[in-house]
Amino acid sequence: MSAAAISVPIHKHKPSRVLPGFHLSLGFTIFYLSLIVLIPLSAVFLKTFTMTWDLFIAAVTSDRVVASYKLTFGASLLAAFFNAIFGGIVAWVLVRYKFPGKKFIDALVDLPFALPTAVAGIALTALYAPNGWLGRYLEMVGIKVAFTPLGVLVALTFIGLPFVVRTIQPVLEDAERELEEAAASLGASHWQTFAKVIFPTIFPALLTGFALAFARATGEYGSVIFIAGNMPMVSEITPLFIVTKLEQYDYAGATAIAVVMLLVSFVMLLTINLLQAWTRKRGQAEKV
């Protein structure tokens, strides 16, 4: 007896989405990003294009502007580097230790987020001025913070710390303690456990926090102008120079400096993101 083969068509259903409407949401996303990000940035470039090439070079390469570049980007990199080190230590202490006042210190980390930047600048100036609570004692040993590039570094470190702490903290909380215990049982020292087990886990998050702290520091204005002193060629930051150009109605010159800051920041953030992607890919390859 022959049995007729019955073929049942199999319909492949696309996986249902919890929130439908991809095309509508994508269009809204592009519209929103264009309205908030792309159009303002394109306006900066378009305004700069009204200048001739010689005027553009003269505007962005004057001695005062170059000195402000060095201070802004140099201090931002140093502040992000210090925050990467000490912010990682703060995150480690908050995750791995229990002590009285832990919740208060954890909430205190977010203070630079909530505090207006002008208030932060005034507070830091009052603290580190030559007659301030800490400044008077630092003056005795020959260290001057307020109204110097060191004051700019202090302000940028203050406003960038929460970015590193809040980026590393959840990664440490989700880290598997079993791997550390396994490394210790195999005879690894504390330093070897940190270098081979813990650091590779938190390194991508550390890079992200570094990038966020650097990005915030390059555009910081309110907390810096009070403690910097704003002395030309010494403690004058680039955002202040842009504001000065705007007050002088030199809109093309202000946008020209802004374009240089935008390009330099983009290149540095792109480099950090590429390094982060490389470390993530390398970590996945090692797991396989």
Protein described:
The protein has 13 helices and no strands. Helix 3 (63-96) crosses helix 10. The model has no long low-confidence stretch (mean pLDDT 86). It has 288 residues and is mostly helical.
What fraction of residues sit in β-strands?
under 5%
* Spatial gap, N to C terminus: 53 Å
N-to-C order of helices and strands = HHHHHHHHHHHHH
Output the structural class.
Answer: mainly alpha
Rg, alpha carbons: 26 Å
- Low-pLDDT runs: none
Q: Can you give the mean pLDDT?
A: 86
Sheet with the most strands, sense and barrel status: none
Q: How many H/I helices?
A: 13
**Beta strand count:** 0
Shape: globular
Share of residues in helices: over 70%
Topology:
Layout lengths: L21 H27 L4 H8 L2 H34 L5 H7 L2 H4 L2 H12 L6 H6 L8 H26 L2 H9 L4 H29 L3 H7 L9 H10 L3 H37 L1
Helix pairs in contact: 1-13, 3-8, 3-10, 6-8, 6-11, 8-10, 8-11, 9-10, 10-13, 12-13
Short description:
By secondary structure, the chain is an all-alpha fold. 75% of the residues lie in helices and 0% in strands.
What structural keywords apply?
single chain, 288 residues
